[in-house]
Amino acid sequence: MFFPAACRLAVNAVLSFCLLISAAQAEAPSLTHIFPPGGQRGTTVPVKLNGKFAWPVSIDAPSVEIKPGTESGALEITIPADLAADRVWIRAFNAEGASATVPLLIGNLKELNETEPNNKPREAQTLAESRVIINGVLKGADVDGFSVPLEPGQTLIASLEANGKLGSPMDAILQVCAADGTVLAENHDDPGLDPRIVFPVKKPGHHIVRVFGYSSTPNTSIAFQGGDTSLYRLTITTGPLVTRALPLSASVTEPASAELLGWGLPPQLRLPVQPWGIKEEPEFEASGEMRTPSMSRLAIVSTPELAGSARVRLVPWPSILATANAEPQPVPLPSSVTGCLRQPKQTDLYRLTLKKGDPLLVTVESRGLDLPLDPLVKLVSPSGKTAAEVDDTGNNRDAVLSHKAAEDGDYILHITDRHRFGSDRGYYLLTARLEESDFELTAAAESFVVQSDKPAEIVVNVVRRTGIEGAVGPITIEAVDLPPGVTAMPVVSEVKGD
C-alpha cells in the first residue's frame, strides 16, 4: 500500500521496471476535476470530466456503474442506493498510462447544480425546497447566492464541502442574508477551511445563503479568488443533519451500532456501523505523523432519510466511551477511547498501567477528525513527575505522545484543550497502546508512466519504527500484478543504507 507523499521520510529503496512493448504513440490522460463533484445515492448522475485526454477514454470507478456519452468527457454514473461509502475515486486510463484520481462525493439528499447569474441578492438562485445539495464552482471573484423559503421556528443548516473532501484550493465563507442582502449570520471555518452555519429562523420569507471564498494558500492579495477547480457541495436543509457518530471507533470484528450526532436529530438515535462498501479499491487512512494503525479500517454510518453521514474507524482492540468520573478512568492497553471536553478548562484523566521499559504510544485526535479541539496531552509518572507532554505533532494540531516507561506502576494521562475550550462538540479519540515494530512505505505519486525504451525508477521511502518486538529487519519490496510485458526485480531495504 502506498500512502500519500506527505508522509515520506528516511531510507530510500529503488525499483527498476522494464517495459517490453512497442513505443508509445499517445499521452496518458490527465484529470483535473469532474462536475458535478458528487451525486445522490440510488440515482444516475450526468458528469463531465475535465482534463487532457483523447475521447473515448477508459474509466476506473470502483462500485459505481459508468456509461460513456458521445460528447467528449461526458459520463453517466449510477450510484447504488446501498453503497456504504461517502466518496468514490475516479481515474481515466488508456494504453499509455493512467491519470491521478479525482473524488466523487456521495450524499442522501436531492441534488442540483448552481446556475449563473446568482451573484447579487436579486439574482440569487431560487430553491423550490429547503432540503437539497447544490453542486457549484467559484470562478474568479465569484459570489454564489441561493434563495431559500423559510418559516419562523425552523432551523436552517448550511454546510459546505470543498477544501476538506474535494481538495478545492479555496478558503470559503458562508453567509445567511435577508432578501435585501443584510448579513444575518456568517461562518468562516468549522473547524477546517470548510464553513457551516446553524441559523434559527425568526422571520418568514426567503433568506439567501451566500458562498464566496479566498485562496486556501495565503498570498498578498486580499480579494475573492476562485477558478475551475474551486468546486463545492453546499448542503441546505431545515431537517436533520448528521455530522458525527459515537463512539468515534468500533471493533473491526463486531462494528455493532453508533449514536448519531448533528442537528435536528431524534435523541439517542442509533444506526448500524457499516464496513466500507468499496472492496475493489478500498479507502484507507494514511498512517503518517498521527501513527494511524495499519490494521484499522474505515466504516460509515448513514441512512437515506437523513442528510449527511459519519465515518467511524474500525480497530482490532476494545473501543470504549469515556466516563464522567472524578477519579482517573483505567484504560487497558491496547484500546481506543472516545471522550469529550464539554466544559471550558476541563481536563480528562486516564490511568495506564506500565512496566519499566514499556514503549507507550498515545495519540489524541480531534482536528484530524473534523472536530474543534486542539489537544494538549501530559503523562505523569507513578512518582508524580511529568514524564512527557505534547501539544502539536508535526503540522497537526493533534497530539502523538511516545514514552518509554522508566518505572513500574500507574501513569496518569491528562487530556485538555490547548486554549481551554470545551463544548458539546469537543470530542476526541484517544488511542493508547504499546508501540509495535512496524514500517511504512510511501511513494512520490500514485501512478507512474513507464516508457518502452528505458527502465523507470520508482523511489519507495521506508520508515522503520522500533517497538516492543525490537528493530525491523530487512524489508523486501516487490511489484505485483504487473501488466504483460512489464517486469520488476524485487529489491531489499536493509536496516542500514538505501
- State the helicity in percent bands: under 10%
Largest sheet: 5 strands, mixed
Point out poorly predicted stretches. Answer: 1-25
Tell me the number of helical segments per DSSP (H or I, 4 or more residues long): 1
The structure class reads mainly beta
Q: Report the end-to-end length measured between terminal Cα atoms.
A: 20 Å
Broad shape = globular
What is the count of β-strands? 43
Overall pLDDT, averaged? 90
Q: How large is the radius of gyration? A: 25 Å
Task: Work out the strand percent.
Answer: over 45%
How do the helices and strands line up, and which of them pair or pack?
Blueprint: E1 11-19, E2 30-35, E3 38-40, E4 44-52, E5 58-60, E6 65-68, E7 74-78, E8 87-94, E9 97-98, E10 102-107, E11 111-113, E12 125-126, E13 131-137, E14 144-150, E15 155-161, H1 163-166, E16 170-177, E17 183-187, E18 196-200, E19 205-215, E20 231-237, E21 241-246, E22 249-251, E23 257-263, E24 270-272, E25 274-275, E26 297-301, E27 307-308, E28 310-315, E29 319-321, E30 329-330, E31 335-340, E32 348-354, E33 359-365, E34 375-380, E35 386-390, E36 399-404, E37 409-417, E38 427-434, E39 438-443, E40 456-465, E41 475-477, E42 486-488, E43 491-493
Parallel strand pairs: 3-10, 11-13, 12-14, 21-27, 22-28, 29-31, 30-32
Antiparallel strand pairs: 1-40, 1-42, 2-4, 4-7, 5-8, 6-7, 8-9, 8-10, 13-20, 14-19, 15-18, 15-20, 16-17, 16-19, 21-23, 23-24, 25-26, 26-28, 31-38, 32-37, 33-36, 33-38, 34-35, 34-37, 39-40, 41-43
